[in-house]
Design brief:
- By secondary structure, the chain is an alpha+beta fold.
- 20% of the residues lie in helices and 26% in strands.
- Strands 6-7-8 form a three-stranded antiparallel sheet, with helices on one face.
- Strand 7 and strand 8 form a beta hairpin.
Length: 152
């Protein structure tokens, strides 16, 4: 069933800056984005990578430049390659596992794509505090990840 929560079930602490963590079934309802917008697909992901100069540098160009330890942001050190030159302003909102535990806050940001791999797994892209790249990964559809809507 479609579901959404906030990291550690703390809406007031995470709603405004990080948003919700949605399972893949919520993504497939096509009700998460405003009219004229949608959750990106794999082709959109590839276009993004190409536009930003390749997978090895795209992640840094998408990450907010602040660090948790500096008091100006949310990424753990070293926040490798972060420039936010794409204006994506990616924040490390972490994830909720299919089993219900939360992890990754401060160290990674994860956004669903529309594609599914099979009945259990869906695809997403991830940014990590120790890397300047962007990676395509798979995740249990029952788990919770962020979304980012794009204009059609």
């Amino acid at each position: 069933k479609p579901a959404m929560t906030f990291f550690n079930n703390q809406e007031s602490a995470h709603k405004e800056l990080f948003g919700g963590l949605y399972n893949w079934h919520a993504v497939k309802t096509n009700k998460l984005c405003p009219t004229g917008w949608r959750v990106p697909n794999k082709d959109d992901y590839q276009t993004l990578i190409n536009t930003l100069g390749g997978a090895s540098v795209a992640g840094g160009k998408m990450k907010d430049t602040g660090l948790q330890h500096s008091g100006t942001g949310y990424w753990e050190k070293p926040n490798e390659g972060a420039s936010n030159s794409s204006d994506f302003t990616g924040h490390p909102g972490g994830y909720r596992s299919a089993g219900g535990s939360f992890a990754g806050f401060g160290s990674n940001g994860n956004w669903w794509l529309q594609e599914d791999i099979n009945a259990i797994m869906g695809e997403y892209f991830t940014l990590h505090f120790q890397l300047s790249d962007i990676k395509l990964e798979k995740f249990d559809k029952k788990g919770g990840l962020s979304i980012r809507c794009i204009k059609e």
